[in-house]
Every structure is written in C-alpha cells, then in structure tokens.
Amino acid sequence: MTETSLNMPIDREGAASVSAPLIETLTIALAGSLLSILTSGFVFGVDNNIFHLPIVAGLFNEPQYQDDAFIQSMRYFASGVWIVLSDSQKYFDHTELVFFVLNFLSRLFSVLGFLCCASLLGITDRRDRIVFTLLVCSIPLLLGYSPAGTGGLFINYFTHSEIANGTILLGVYFAARGRFTAATVALGVTFFVNAFMAIWLAPLLAFIGIYLLIKKETTIAAVCSRTAIGLVISAPIMFPVLHAILSNPELGKSLGVDYAAYLREYFAGHSLIDSISMSGILQIAEIAALGAIALYWFGPTGRELQVAYLGAILLYLLGVVLPSLSTSPFLLNIQLLRSGTIIHLLAGLAIAALATCWLRRDSSALFLPGCAIVLALYLGDVAFLIAIPIILAARHIREATETVPAYRRRVGYALLAMAGCVLFPLGAWNYFVFDRAYSEGAQEWADVGNWARMSTPTSATFIVPPRPDLDAKPTPSIADIALSRQGNFEFVSHRRVWVDYKRGAAAMWTPSYYAVWHQRMTETAGLGDHASKLAYAAREGIGYVVEKCDAVSSQDSSSVLFRTAHLCVSAAKRQAAGL
Questions:
Q1: Please, what is the Cα angle at 518 between 516 and 524, to 5 degrees?
Q2: How many other C-beta atoms are found inside a 10 Å radius of the C-beta of residue 365?
Q3: Nearest Cα to 485, choosing from 497, 498, 472, 467?
Q4: Is the pLDDT of residue 342 over 90?
C-alpha cells in the first residue's frame, strides 16, 4: 500500500480510492501465500506438532495422563495460539484443516509484512509488487530454516512461531513510518504468539525510534505517548500469555544441572554458537553480507530498514557471545541465535526488492544483472557466491550513458526462463518428494495410533523408536527421518509414550521434567536390539514397543501385534501373557 493512499481524505470517492490499493495488496498477498504453500507443501502431525497436538486434544485433562510429566507440562506452554486452541478438538474435530488454515494465515501475515516493508524501498506499483511477491514466495533463500540458529522461515508444517515472522516485519514497517502505536501493537501481538520473538523485536523498534529522533522526524514526547497508547491496546492481548507464564509453579526453578550442558544434551542450536557447524556459520555470514550489500544499494531510501538490519545483526552477535558471559536459563531461553531469522527475512526482502527494481525495464543496463540475480536466487546455497559479486559489479553501471545491446535483453529473458521454467519447478518437486515422505510417515503413525486406541487399554504405554543419528554415515534416508518425527501418535491414540527425544524441550518450562527425561533417554539409548527393548518394557511395566520392522528379528516376530509398511508394534512379555 502506498503512503499516498494511506493519507487520502475519506469521502465517498476517497473511500473507493483508499480501498482499491488495499484490495489489490490483499489480492497479491493471497496469491503469493498460495504460491508459497504450493512451493513448500504442507504436512500435518510431524516434528514440533508433538507439543501442539496434545494441547489441542486436551490430553492433560484425561485420567491416563494425570501423572505424565510431559503432557502435564503442556498446561504451561505459553503461546497465545495454543491457549486459544487448548482442548478445542472436542468442539471441532478437524484439526488438520485448522492447522492448514492457520498455516495459510501465517504465510499471509508474512507476505503482507514483506509487501509493507518493500514499500519502504520503492516497491509500490502493481507490477513491482507482483514481481517482488513472486520472488519472496518461491526463492529457496526464504524456504526452510535459518542455517545458524534454526529459526523457521517458510516451512512445510504449522507452528505458531512462523506467525511472528509476519508481525515482526509489520512492526518494523510501522516503526519506520513513525507509527509507534501500531508498532507497539505489533510487538504485543508478537508477544502473544511467541514471547521471546517479541524480545527480539523490541530493540529493533528502539533502534528505528532513535534514528527518527536523530533525524528530527519525531519527538521523544510523540514516541512515548504513542508507545504508551500501543501498550494499553496490547495489554489484553499480552495478558493470557503473561498469566500462563506467571501461573507456572516451576517458574524460576533450577534444572539441577548446568543449563548449557542440558542444551547440548537436548538441542543447543538455538543458543550456543559452538554447537553449529562451520558451514552453517558461513551461510549466515553470507546471508548477512548479501542483505547488507543489497540494502546499501538503496541508500537513504532504505535507511530505516538499514537501521533495523543493523539491530538484527547486533542482536545475533550478542547471542554469539552471551553463553560465554552467562549460563542463565532465562537469558539462554531467549534463543538469540534463533533471531538470525530476522537477518534472513530482511536479507530476502532486500535482495528481492533489488532484483525487482532492476527488472523494471528491459532496456535498462541493470536488467541483465537483475535477471542473473534471480537465476542465482534459485540455485540454492551458491546464490550468495553469485549474487554478491553481481551487485558489487553493478555499481559501476551508468544507466544514463550506457547503450544496451539487444542481445543482453535476450540473454536476460533466457536467464529468467531458466529460473522460472527449470530451477523453480525442480526445487518445488524436491520439496514435494520430501513432503510426501513426511506425510507417509505421519500416516503410518496415525495408523498405529488408531490401532492403539481401538485395541489397547487406556492406561497402555508405548516405547517409540529413537531418532536416527543425522550425522551418521551413510546419512539416514528421508523415510527414516520422517518416521522418527512422529508428532501425532498420542494425539490419535490417546495412549502414553514413555519417552522420546523431542520431549526434552519441556524441561525449559518445567525443569522438574529434566530428571525424568534424562533417565529414560539414558536407559533406552542403551537398548541395543528389539529383544532388549521388550525386556526393558516388561521390567518397567510398559505394554508395547513400536519399532521399525526391519529391526525386528524373526525370533521376535511372534510378539508383533500390528504392523504398517515400516512400523511394527510388539507386546512386551508381561502384556503378552495377559492377551
């Protein structure tokens, strides 16, 4: 939406002229969101859904879970999204549809945020916004996860955190426009979605505010008053999350071990830089450099975004050094390395906006470099090595004096055709293959869950396969990885799981769970074969063991009660005796 349209007088004719750009923006954003979903795909019931689905199903209210420390900890999973959806399945039993709609709305927020921020860089007319949206919704740079912090960008399943990507972009946009009431409301909504992402956003808004004060485009009184109004509006939005945090009886309780050691045992990639591979560190450095060079091209036009980008980089660097200064659980739980997501988002915004500007006229000397950048963006990891030299070299192009030969236009269109007709479909196909493997894995777990709900006692407990070693040689297959990401078994079965790797995250908000998780993970990690798992299950009073069928020996096959294409459910000896 252009700044002119936002300031038009509202009369009968003006109302139409105001609504037209809004409708156009929403139409472009809706189409872009659909393209983004089609590119990344959508899968239900995997990975972090292991935390979300028990909340939606209200499992913590069921009698078989009253002494299950993990499921009970979900009462204090402090995101407003899940507070709203808590125990909602009993009112609307189409959770997969709910997650798909929420995933689409999450994309829509992000695309709207991108479009608003792009207007700060001069991307305002219809053609530019369409080209820009096509790029941000399809380039590999904005798909998947940020490499050194593992923050989600456009990912293939629904989690609440990715909603905050859009609210962060909108918050930056409003602050850059000097609309601190709206920016503060965006901060409050971000807090509702994900509290620590709101902590990332706050210093960026402060940086922009300080810059506008230095430029004398606003006053301290104006910033303070508008921010205060925004806080008043945001208070009811933030209250449910604050209440959930403060009502947690384990708030501030010690884990009992060094917190950094726990993170290394569970997952340190959000907080500890020495847990990240050198290739990941190089990638985030390249992304940061690409974004900085692209934003620098816009000069004073993009100053507010440049200031926000500087804030994001400084925030990330603080996350790099923070663990050497403190191992406070509170500070490490802010997950500052994960804030590299903002660097990633703003870098993607800048390079897509720059390419869009260069593609405006095919008679321009910058048209061919713009086409080359688009091609580079679809080449994946090597994009940085190609795009950065192109941008640096293009600074020597003088638009007014250079005559552009016709062949350069033809080469440019050929590069665009290569990107759009070859590289993009190939990348989308790879995502489709990946998503299909995940969907098949989730369906197998759903089949096991349905069998368990129909065929086992309500009090039954299951041992599930350990996650594969992703660093092992040879690398585990996509199918093996997909089968290890069960996030829907308990949701479907309403039966307990003894332990799995993902559940270790619950120690962050309920520290007492760490001892349970650590002991069970240690014990099950030492179980070498299926027979030892069955024996362990019998000793612990666990009724069933789910194992990959190729790990079940012929001697143990008699214990198998149910199987899918890859998963076998066996009865432990004590349970088998009663069958």
A1: 100
A2: 18
A3: 467
A4: yes
b/e sequence 34-59, b meaning 16+ C-beta within 10 Å: ebbbebbbbbbbbbbbbbbbbbbbbb
How does DSSP classify residue 12? H
Structure-block tokens of residue 37 = 């979903």
Strands 496-497 and 461-463 come out as: parallel
* HEC per residue, 131-162: HHHHHHCCCHHHECECCCCCCECECCCCCCHH
The string of pLDDT tens digits covering residues 147-166 is 999 999 999 999 999 999 99
- For the CA atoms of 262, 318, 308, 132, the dihedral, rounded to the nearest 10 degrees, stands at -50
Dihedral angle of Cα 349, 283, 306, 222, to the nearest 10 degrees: 90
Burial (CB count <10 Å: 0-12, 13-18, 19+), residue 363 = exposed
pLDDT band, residue 6 (cuts 50/70/90):
very low
DSSP of 304-333, one letter per residue? HHHHHHHHHHHHHHHHHHHHHH---HHHHT
Which residues are CB-neighbours of 495 under 8 A, at least 6 positions away?
64, 449, 452, 453, 456, 458, 460, 461, 462, 489
> Which residues lie closer than 8 Å to 139 by C-beta, 6 or more apart?
348, 352, 377, 378
pLDDT of residue 403: 66
**32 close to 109: Cβ distance less than 8 angstroms:** no
Q: Which amino acid is at 461?
A: T
In whole angstroms, give the CA distance from residue 231 to residue 214: 24
Distance of CA 51 to the CA centre of its chain: 15
Q: Which pLDDT band, with edges at 50, 70 and 90, does 7 fall under?
A: very low
**Span 534-557, pLDDT tens digits:** 999 999 999 999 998 888 877 667
DSSP 8-state code for residue 250:
T
| Residue 291, H or E segment | helix 278-297
Instruction: Tell me the C-alpha distance between 356 and 374, whole Å.
Output: 9
Q: Are strands 567-571 and 544-548 parallel, antiparallel or unpaired?
A: antiparallel
Contacts of 436 (CB under 8 A, 6+ apart): none
